[in-house]
Amino acid sequence: MSSPDRWSSPPHQVAVTIDVEWAHPEVLDDILRLLAERNLRATFFCTHAGIVMPRHERALHPNFRRQRNSLLEGRDPDELSRWTDEDFYRFVIRSTQAFCPEAVGVRSHCLFYDSALLPIYRELGLQYESSYFLPLTPGLGPVWKGCDILALPIYYLDYWDLRNQATGFTLAGLHLERPGIKVVGFHPNIVFINAATLEQYLDSKAHYHDPEGLRRLRHSGRGARTLFVELLDYLGSGRLAVSTLAEVNARCRESR
Question: How far apart, in whole angstroms, are the C-alpha atoms of residue 3 and residue 33?
Answer without folding.
Answer: 35
